[in-house]
Request: fold
Amino acid sequence: MKISKNDALIWFDYFAQLNADEELTAKHEEIIYSVFAQIEAAVEHRNEALMAQIKGLKTLGGRTYFVGNESRFPRGCRSCLFGTGLGAVRKTNKCNLKCKFCYNYGQLDNIPPVGESMWDIGGTRFYVKDIDLLLSIQQKPSGIAYVYLEPFMEIEEYYPVIRKFRDAGIHQHLYTNGTLATEETLKALGEAGLDEIRFNLGASNCSDMVIESMRIAKKYITSVGIETPMTPEFYRTFFKKKDKILGTGLDFINCAELHLNENNIGNYYGENLYISRHGYISPIWSRELTLKFMRIADEESWDIAVHDCSNHTKFARGLNLSSREGLWFGASSYGCEFARIPFEAFMPVLNDDNFRFLTEEELPEDYKPPIMDY
Reply:
């Protein structure tokens, strides 16, 4: 069904008013999926037009897109998309910032600790001394990533673990907002064997202090980059400080398409949202800004890799990891992060006169929207 925008609006208004315990029928689901398909098709059409304007657009096996210097494309992303995925190594359950786009927004004081002197690797708790046993039994991954809030809250704990994985020849990268980094700790990370560090520059609104930490990091760590959810705030501030940021000698910028969960979606109510393949829910402007960002990088010939880390890329990541794990054909961990569809969150895009569906058809009689009693 190519549902009309007006019918979609009426139906979603109806769904948004249902009680949480009211179940949707199969016919309701057909309507919902038709609305999602219409929104997504319009979004894809707009994105394809933007991509067509990027003369130097490149792809890695159809799994993701980038512009710029391919030799500086992050190895951590290659591991994610073509290797055995990214083994998540978790330790720190705290952060010194509160970002509106954070997946843990509003929950930062309630994140369970991993355990005293312990590390979460693949969902299992390990002491540092256990890592030798792990490496002697299981096949080592092509890469691991230090995730789970802000590692510089206790960065000294990370050095011995990084040394273990360095000695095993595993590529390692670490995420940070950068506000707590010092030359001493960045040097120690490099000496321990960290291969790649990613600064969430949007978390500090492109702080001069963090930009300087990026420059310092490049002295000690082979690959230095930015990985930030693409938001209007980051886009604006980046270009105000573009020369200073590019002057750090960084290698790459991962422009992450912002996706929302139950923790952070409230910070984006009123924005035009879409859902990708019934999975991630994102503001429409996020990838549009990324593609505009990449066009500028291409036209100005920045000597770095600028990566479109989109919902499409996340979908490819899930398929690659499932394949590497030997799961069944088509299996993927990619999916919606909401227990119940937040219908009200899609009302702004359906109310936006400037957002148009590509084609519309009249609904069959038994799919007509209900007459709402206002």
The CA atoms of residues 215 and 247 lie 8 Å apart. The longest strand covers residues 223-229. The chain has a mean pLDDT of 96. Residues 1-52+343-374 form one domain.
